[in-house]
Specification:
The protein is built from 13 helices and 14 strands. The protein is of the alpha/beta class and 430 residues long.
Length: 430
């Protein structure tokens, strides 16, 4: 890890930023990318193929198909299923936009369901209630790198004859009973965007054990070209009137990655387990250090038999908390702790949903609660001991204003105390 481009800087509490993410690559990635540029082969080639092979072996699947982004990976995976207009795909309301939008983009109907409050992941009970004769697939999201209840979800899918696409875009290396996310469903997807565990700057991957899905993915990512199909020679003979170099079987996309992305990937993957170890150690350290504030916070949990890989560290206020999420978040921001909403929040209330056919199944109570009361901060290898201690100190500074005094102190009075604190610090008061 010593060759990473961004190393530790002198940390000054309250001044130095604690970022949401940092650069994950070093000089090896750059030299490999330069090698591609110097070779003149910058489009999808040998380095992409090598990274695909490495990723398939790491996840434990037969096939890995690299694409230009995690969003494209979701759209490509859904495109393999042959969904028809009106077909429904069940997915959590609490997620990122590019879990939901690709469902509509292939002509299907996203069905938004609630999540569990302790894991932020799709509710098994909500999935069962959402199934109709039109349901064709379930698309769970391993949110923030926390594995979903896959045994239950796969059983539901088996009983009802449904396909499962795992959105593992934030779950690189997460496991359930030692089996990595992405290898459970019919297809799995990953993102290698800048902010993720490892990065090809932009980039994504579709994984599967299904030979037909893999072949279709390879064709669809490159316009629907026939040339990557195993029966290419036969297809050429079947269509003698078409130049075989430009034989298209499906109405596809241009989701091809570049060789530069592949160059980054083959050196990023060996770093991944080290990054995961650092993220996990930091998250569990914060959990222990923040335990004294559990009257205010619902700390992130790792379910038994799983490996949570902590894409980020979430803060979730307990019901009845004497201050708002905005107030705590703005206080930490004023101290230099970068933060953001948990994913896109509750997707059901996003204005873009007005433009696509969708269905909401059941109340979205927990998704709404997390939307209104949660946020997340960085949890990565760029946060050292001084920075992690500073986050705890900032929390202590904030929470101490709400301790002591009469147990009958009103919520309004305690909230006013927080407003006073914000005013003193020059922070915006919600």
């Amino acid at each position: 890890m010593t060759d990473l481009l961004v190393g530790p800087e002198q940390f000054i509490p309250g001044i130095t930023k604690i970022p949401l993410n940092v650069v994950t690559y070093g000089r090896e990635e750059i030299y490999e990318a330069v090698d591609s540029l110097e070779s003149g082969w910058v489009t999808m080639g040998a380095k992409v193929k090598r990274f695909e092979q490495m990723w398939a072996e790491y996840i434990g699947v037969k096939h890995a198909v690299m694409v230009n982004s995690g969003s494209s990976a979701n759209l490509l995976a859904l495109s393999c299923l042959g969904l028809q207009p009106g077909d429904e795909v069940i997915t959590p309301a609490l997620t990122w936009a590019t879990t939901v939008f690709p469902i509509a983009q292939v002509g299907a109907v996203p069905v938004l369901v609630d999540v569990d409050l302790d894991t932020y992941n799709i509710s098994v009970a909500a999935v069962e209630r959402a199934i109709t004769p039109r349901t064709r697939a379930i698309m769970p999201v391993h949110l923030l790198g926390n594995p979903c209840a896959l045994y239950n979800l796969m059983q539901i899918a088996s009983v009802h004859g449904l396909k499962v696409i795992e959105d593992a875009c934030e779950a690189h290396g997460a496991t359930l009973d030692g089996h990595k996310m992405g290898q459970w469903g019919d297809l799995g997807t990953f993102s290698f965007f800048f902010s993720h565990h490892i990065s090809t700057v932009e980039g994504g991957m579709v994984v599967t054990d299904n030979d037909n899905y893999a072949e279709r993915c390879r064709s669809l990512r490159a316009f629907g070209w026939a040339r990557e199909m195993p029966d290419y020679a036969e297809l050429r003979q079947r269509h003698p009137g078409i130049d075989p170099r430009f034989l298209f079987l499906h109405p596809g996309y241009n989701f091809r990655p570049t060789e530069i992305q592949g160059a980054f990937g083959i050196h990023q993957l060996p770093r991944l387990e080290g990054f995961i170890a650092q993220r996990r150690e930091l998250a569990f350290w914060w959990n222990e250090a923040l335990k004294e504030h559990e009257e205010f916070l619902m700390l992130p949990q790792e379910r038994p038999r799983t490996r949570h890989v902590f894409f980020a560290y979430p803060f979730l206020l307990r019901p009845g908390c004497p201050f708002t999420r905005e107030t705590l978040q703005s206080y930490l921001e004023s101290r230099g702790v970068e933060s953001r909403q948990i994913e896109a929040g509750n997707m059901a209330i996003q204005p873009a949903m007005q433009h696509i056919q969708h269905r909401i199944s059941g109340p979205l109570t927990n998704a709404e609660y997390i939307h209104n009361n949660g946020f997340m901060i960085g949890c990565h290898q760029g946060i050292g001991q001084t920075e992690r201690e500073a986050v705890v100190e900032y929390c202590q500074e904030f929470f101490q204003r709400f301790r002591g005094g009469s147990s009958h102190t009103s919520r309004e009075k305690r909230y006013n105390s927080c407003k006073e604190l914000d005013s003193q610090e020059g922070n915006p008061v919600p």
